[in-house]
Structures are given as C-alpha cells and as structure tokens.
Design a protein that fits this description.
- The complex is a heterodimer of chains A (295) and B (506).
- Chain A contains seven helices and eleven strands.
- Chain A is elongated.
- In chain A, 40% of the residues lie in helices and 17% in strands.
- With 295 residues, chain A is an alpha+beta fold.
- The longest helix of chain A has 30 residues.
- Chain A has a six-stranded antiparallel β-sheet with strand order 2-1-10-9-7-8, with no helix packed on it.
- In chain B, the strands form five sheets. Chain B has a seven-stranded antiparallel β-sheet, with helices on both faces. A six-stranded antiparallel barrel of chain B has the order 10-11-12-15-14-13.
- Chain B is 22% helix and 33% strand.
- Chain B folds into two domains: 236 residues, no CATH class; 225 residues, Thrombin, subunit H (Beta Barrel).
- Chain B is α+β, with helices and mostly antiparallel strands and 506 residues long.
- The chains are: A alpha+beta (295), B alpha+beta (506).
- Chains A and B meet through helix 2, strand 11, helix 6 and helix 7 of A and strand 1, helix 9, strand 22, strand 23 and strand 24 of B.
- Strand 11 of chain A pairs parallel with strand 22 of chain B, so a sheet runs across the interface.
Chain lengths: 295, 506
Amino acid sequence: METLALIETLDRDGQPRQILRVSQWPVRIGRAIACDLVLDDPHVAAHHATLELRDDGVHVVPAATLNGVRLGRAAIAPGSTPLLPAAALLTLGGTSLRVRLAGEVLAPEQRLLDLHQYERRHVTTLLLLIAFAALWKGFDLWLTAMPGQPGSVLAWSYLAAPAGLVVWCAAWAIGSMLFQRRFAFWAHLHVALRWLMAGVVAEAVTAQLAFAFSMPWLDKLGRIAFVVAIAQQQPLVGDLYLGTISLPAMRMARPVPVDAFVKSAAPLEKTLSHWTKAGDDGADADDSDDEDDGG
Amino acid sequence: MIKARNAGHGARGSSPRRFRSNNAHKAAGYDGSMPLNRLLRRPGRLLALLLAGSALAAWAGATAPGTPRTAAPASPLARPPAAASAAEPGDEHDDSANLSASARRIYDVGRPRLLQVRTLLRDQDSQASVGSGSLVGPDGLILTNYHVVSQMALEPQRYRLNFQTVDGVAGALQLIAFDVVHDLALVRMAQPPAAVASRGTFEFRPQATPLAQGERIFSLGNPLDIGFEVIEGTYNGLVERSFLPQILFSGALNPGMSGGPVLDDRGRIVGVNVATRRDGQNISFLVPAEFAQALIARSAHAKPITGPVEAEMARQLLVHQQQLTTRFIGLPWRETKHAHYSVPVPQEDFMRCWGSSNPSESKGLSFERSDCQMDTAIFINESLRTGDIAVRHEVYDGSRLGALRFAQEAGMSFRNERMGRRTHDLTAPKCQEDFVENAGLTMRSVMCLRAYRHLPGLYDVAVLSQSVDAKTEGVQGRFDARGVSFQNALLLASHYLQGFAWKRSP
C-alpha cells in the first residue's frame, strides 16, 4: 500500500513518539478509539480534527473542541479549514503533530561533525596548547612571584586558572549534552584554549610594542583584543597612561628632551578648560581616591 | 608606588608608632589629601553623633542655673581691660592662684565680645556646623575663619549664617570679606542689636611688641557646641618650615573653637584658632593676628558679598601659587647619595621629608623611599584642599630579581599610581606621556593635569617619571602641585624633570 503521508506525534523534545503511516484520506484524530490517530491527551476531544484531501491538497478541518487546533503558532479560526503546508506542525490540545506529505521536497543531507574524528585530528594541537598554556602560566607566576614566597601559595595560584578553564569547558559540554546529546568537552577545551592563548599573546605583544615605540593606543588596542578573545583581569577603560615598563633593550622610540615634553602638554589646557565648562569628562573616571575628611 | 604584597614588604604596612610623629599617616597617598591639620570647625555629622550620646548632660548643663559659666559675669574678679595692664606677665610667675585668676580675668574681658558663628540650613534652624568669632569692629564686625563660613560662602542658596553671644543674643550674619589663603573671614551682623553696640571690640596686640616663646596666651571659643571656654596655653613661636606662617599654640583646641580669638594677658588678639594636630597632643595652630589686621584694614567697610565668591577666591589663590612657585623654583634640588641617579629632592625650607625602606631580609625588590610634603594646605571646602606641593621618589634595587622580573615589578609600581578622577571640584585628569631624556637619564614620564571646575585658571598637576635605562635598578619619582596656574604647572613640571640625571662616575 502506498504511503500518502506520515503523521508523527512528537514528545516535548521534538522527537517522534508515535508514527502513523497514512494510506488513505481522510484521517480522523482524537481521543476516541474510533479515530485513525488516537491521542492519549486529556486536552484533546473525542474527535478533535480531520485531515481531508481536497482538489488543491490536504486540509485541516477542526471539529468543535474546547482547546482548538494550532497550525504552526497560529490558532485556526472556527469554521476555517486551512491547507496543510509542507512539514506542517499541528498542535491539538497539548500534543504536537508533524505531518509530512508524500512528494515533499526534502532538505539536502547535512554533514555531521564527527566528534571523535575532530578530537583525533586535533589531539596534537590540543596537547601543544595545553603545554603552551602551562608554560605561559608558569612564566607569569615566576614573573610576579617574589623569591622566597611559600610554594603552597604559588601552587594554588597556579591551579586556579586551569580549574576555571575546566569548569568553563564542562559548562559548555553540558550545554552540548543537553542540545546535541554529546559531551564535547575536549572540543570546547580546544576552542577555549586557542582563543585564550591567542588573546594572551596578542596582549603581551601589543604591550611590549606599545612600550618600545611609545604608542599608548596600541596597548589599549591589545587589551580590547584580549577582552574580545574572551576574559578577564584589567578593566578596558580607565587607563590614563601606558602602564608597561619593559627591558631597556625593548625601547625603540627616541626620548625627547624635557622642554619638548613639557611643551607637548600645552594643548591639555584647551581640553581641560572645555571639560570645566561642558563637564563631559565623566567617562574618564578611573579610581576612587576622594577621601572626604572633615574636621 | 610599591604596594605591600605580603607582610613586611612595603611602606604602607608599617607598624604603628604611636607617640612619634612619622609619615605613617601620609602613606595614604598625597592624592588622598589627608590633611595634617584638623580644622576646628565642627561638622554636622559629628554633632549629631555627640548629641545623641550626651544629650542629657548637655541639657542639664544648659538649664541648671548658677553653673560657673553663667556665674562668671557676677564674679568680683571681673576687671576692665585698662585695669588688666597692672598685671604684667613677670609679676605672676609660679603662682598658680594667679594663673587661674588671670584666665578668669581674660575670660571676663573677652566674654561680651565673644560669639559663636553658626552655619544653618537655609530653610530650617538645624545647624550644619559651628565655629567661634570675635567682635573686632563697629556695627557688629566679626572676625572668624574662612572655613567656618565656607559652606555659606560657597552655597548661599543652601546655607545661612547666624551668631550667638555668650549671654544668648542671636541674629543673622552677612559675609563681608575673606582671605582664603590664611583661612580668615569677616562677617557682620545684619541688624546689630543695641545690646551689642555698647560692648566694644577686641584690640590687637601691636606688632611692634612680639610675644616671646613661652608666654601664656588664652584661647577663647565654644568647643563642640557645649559652651564657651577659655583655654590657657603657651605661645611657641611660628611653626617651623611652614610656607604660610602659623603660630604654634601649646594648648588643647577642639572642634567648634575655629575662628575664636587668642588673647595675650591684656586681652589683645594675637591670633585666631584654626587647627590642631590629630597625631599629637596639645599641638594647635593659630593664624597670626597680622593677617587678620590686614584683612580688617582692607575690607572693614566693604559691602556684604551677595554674588558668587569663586572669582575672588581664585584671584587670591593665584597670588598664592605665584609666590609658592617662584619660591620653590628658586631653591636648588638637594644632593642625593645614590650611586647612579640624581633624583630631585626638595630643600626642606618649607617642606618636610620622611624616608622609609623595605626590610633588608626581603628577598624581592628592595627600595628606598622619600616623601616630601608641605604642612599647610589651603582649605576650600570639606573635600578640597589646595595650594601645596609634594615630591616623592622611590629608588629600586632589583639585583635579586633579574631583568625580566624587575621590569614586571617596576611596571606594577608605575601602573598603580593614582591620578584622581572627576569630582565636584575638579575635572578628570588628562595626561601627556613620552620617553624623556635629561642629563643622560632616559625616563618614561607622564604628566597629568586636572582643572578646577569652579576656580578659573587653577590646576592640579602630577608628574610621574620612571627610569627605563637599567636592567635591574631604577628610580621612580612623583611630583604634585595643587592649585597652580597652567603656566606654572608646566614650569614646575619642567623644573622637576630637570632634577633627574645619570651620574657617570659612581
């Protein structure tokens, strides 16, 4: 017998729970066992709706019910019998039905991201990234720690960042578990580490270049890049001046004599006098140091 | 500035040294503008606090008749000022009965001319702050501190002034003139009561007969709004190394006495109560009478000020900053003993420098630090002091750290400097930065300026400079001047940066 249509009863995740192959029209839907499609839903009438073949195609004919029928999101007005579009979604009471008609044009096949293949292919880069991150963090720790600081303090500080990263990736993996039914932890770690390391390196390089060529704006740009590449630490705005001091050998820009430097500050007078009048300097507020001390 | 990272590694965490004057209280940072001197005006919030605790006692004291305070006028020891001249200081040394008597006599002399100056909210009778004052001229002319009347002067739409004499006569006051630099103001009774006209006025001790150190002087005022008092103390000359002359008075002044007169043993004004030291005891400051006399001579007949005071205030501050700048730039920098760096450290003519260093057992960056500040800052309002200079530097030795970690530490120390932010009185800072070379030393230098929003032509300038030409040693300096003209800000910055040099031969 030829299959004219497929009516799938969907569960709340959108997965088919019950599939009816339709070999003849009309199809009566309802709670009564006399129906072609029997729905076990207290919000559905004994006879809730009928699907009928007419000259121009299949129509929905709702019966007289309390809860009515929805086609897609819109409720079907009483007395109206709309034409079923392709891959239509019907809601009867609390039950969702998907109706597929024979001869519908199918969407092309989609490529599946094979998680195992992805993980195998990127295992080397992932290991390299982890090694690089560990080295970077270690270097950062060595740089900021003072000799003689207790090791336990350093160890905690060292472990805090990877722990945070693991929690971050696990959260993403749980998300993908929920929506894609697969636990893509390593893939997320790979993506996160790639961006994080790119950001860290970009920030460090721009800070050094900013120092070398005396270009404070470059440092700001690097910070923005870092924040865009996800995460943390220093605030984006509020830097009044370049805070990086690097090795003497890093300095490329030529120093200016005192007189020239002081002279270069002359235009500040105009800006500041404008600020006193307009009062539009609020965005530059950086730290809180107004200690009110009455007496 | 190096911040304390762990215990025993920084200037900020220094252990308390109670009875020694040190720079621990200054470590909060120059920008925080914690004043050394506490002004003797009583702020409203403190008042509320104290009244809550002592309301009953205050009430009982005020209503009980026959307390010594109210009994004073009936005392047979009351003598007119002319008679007081009979008792010269030399006549009554080592005689405690006489000492007490003379304080009593002074109080009796001063009592009719002594007042409390109260700042009230415009629309109700609650007092925002209280100070003291003295009758010094005809038609109810009263001398007090600028900071006692500053709220009314700056915000006449919110505050008004009132006076109250010892015997309870009260009325409204008008602002006549002020000298913001020396913290003095003249106010006048709006309608002088007839009872006040006959009281006469205080006289000033002639400048030709200066006080000698150790002479007894008497401060009058109404501390903490609990009642008028006379306080005996000692004249100890002018405060050393103070840019603005102030008398050092060894006596216990308290908030609320601001603006009250300080009298010699003949009841003549020698100074005006102004401030006390928080970290000392019985260390109080007076404005010398000569500035009050000058203000009276200049403005006794002026009309009441009704418009904004900011323009006149700015004019006075511009005169002050010009004197300060000229004098500061006129002084050469001091020699520093560092092997490689010459660092600008000011002479201590009108500044005081405190040094500190981190403990030698520290395994990280070791540094030495010097903080130089002026004692006097000019009061503008509760949150704004100005008209002073501060210079500080830190010398770093990072030989135990290596080049990379030294650069990191130096950067941290450079980065965490505060330049202030936008406030009611000042704009946000605007900075200029570059590599600067002077006398063989290359530095990363930042100059930040903030403009006064309401005082035209005045700026705060901060110069931060850090050497960048050695791998494991360096120096960081910071210069701050508050309330200077733009031209002088640049002049001072230039003067400061030229104080840095690299010493060729160690």
